[in-house]
Amino acid sequence: MALLWQKEMSVGNDIIDLDHKYLILFINTIELCLGSPEQKEQLFEAFAQLYDYAEKHFSREESIQRKIDYPERLNHKHHHTQLLKELRDVELKVSKASNDEEITTIAPELTKFLRSWLIDHVFNEDMLLKPYLKKHPRAFF
After folding, report:
1. HSE of 39, CA atoms in CB hemisphere, 13 A
2. Where are the chain's structural domains?
3. Does domain 11-133 have CATH number 1.20.120.50?
4. What b/e string do you get for 16-40 counting C-beta neighbours within 10 Å, with b at 16 or more?
5. Is the pTM of this model over 0.70?
6. Quick one: pLDDT band at residue 37, thresholds 50, 70, 90?
7. Which of 2, 11, 104, 138 counts the most CB atoms within 10 A of its CB?
8. CA distances from 23 to 5, 47, 78, 127, 132 (A)
9. pLDDT above 70 covers what percent of the chain?
């Protein structure tokens, strides 16, 4: 079942929320490819796109944090660095899967990781931004 955006995921900033929606789209695409192991080439492309977009999103989010003087921004940046490392590790694991059967075997673990990778970060880290973002327009950047 596809991961769907819910209003409870909103941090109160349109830029960050839109980025999170795109990250969900990339994760759903990866999950779709994992369900069709013969789509290995598309799977690698989807991982690359997710990684690239996550880097851009984290950069935008960190820029907003500096502008609103978010007191936990250095800790948050550390989380972003760790998340990108974890994503690279998972991408490497997928690239080492030599056949469709291996991809099918690791698919549930990857799906669980990607969902928690995004959802945990949004709810445990990004939601801490919400009180600071409320002081600014929703489209603040």
Report:
1. 14
2. 11-133
3. yes
4. bbebbeebbbbbbbbbebbeebebb
5. yes
6. low
7. 11
8. 10, 11, 19, 16, 23
9. 99
